[in-house]
Amino acid sequence: MTDHDDHVEKFWSRLGGINSGMLGLTEDARLVPMSHYADAEAGRLWFITAKGTDLARILAAGGKDAVHVVADEGKGLFARIHGALSLSDDRAKLDELWNAVASSWFEDGKQDEDVQLLRFDLADAEVWVTGGSLSFLYQMAKAKITGDKPDMGEHFSLGF
């Protein structure tokens, strides 16, 4: 396995275990919390939102460059992900992704007229992978005892 393949595998396996991050358009500094659904095979993330949100209203005019920021110390993943965000009317994908969390936001479930699926096609990501919170504590203690710098994991960039 090449370093690139190893990095891709680490990114997707850890991202799949994280439920949310901060999503926004690159032209606007405002990011909002959103739950994502990882689709590693397609190289994209999916989001379920409401048509009435600022983000969905802006995207109604066409797709935009976007950023999704994920930070989860427990899973050992910190990432800034760039790509193209657009509206999607893919009912099969909505059926696949629909769950109790999503249904709690919409009175009429996935049939609610306000449900909007967002498709985020990844372009690139800057990624930091660590051993997680227990590893962090170990590395800090080890550094204090040995005087060595702590091993804080890997930092790499990915293109999709």
Describe the structure.
The chain is of the alpha+beta class and 160 residues long. The protein has a single domain (3-159), classed as Pnp Oxidase, Chain A, CATH 2.30.110.10. It is built from 5 helices and 8 strands; from the N terminus they run H-E-E-E-E-H-E-E-H-H-E-H-E. The chain has helices spanning 3-15, 54-59, 91-97, 100-103, 133-146, and strands at residues 20-25, 32-35, 37-39, 44-50, 64-72, 77-88, 115-129, 154-159. Strands 1, 2, 3, 4, 5, 6, 7 and 8 form an 8-stranded antiparallel sheet that branches. A hairpin with a 4-residue loop joins strand 5 and strand 6. It is elongated. The chain starts with a helix and ends with a strand.
What is the helix content? 25-40%
CATH superfamily membership: Electron Transport, Fmn-binding Protein, Chain A
CATH fold name, please?
Pnp Oxidase, Chain A
- By CATH reckoning, the class would read Mainly Beta
Average of the residue pLDDT scores: 90
* Model regions low in confidence, pLDDT < 50 over at least 5 residues: none
CATH architecture: Roll
In N-to-C order, the SSE pattern is: HEEEEHEEHHEHE
Biggest beta-sheet profile: 8 strands, antiparallel
InterPro entries: Split_barrel_FMN-bd (IPR012349), Stress-Dev_Protein (IPR052917), YdaG_split_barrel_FMN-bd (IPR038725)
Protein name: General stress protein 26
Pfam families: Pyrid_ox_like (PF16242)
Domain General stress protein FMN-binding split barrel: 6-151
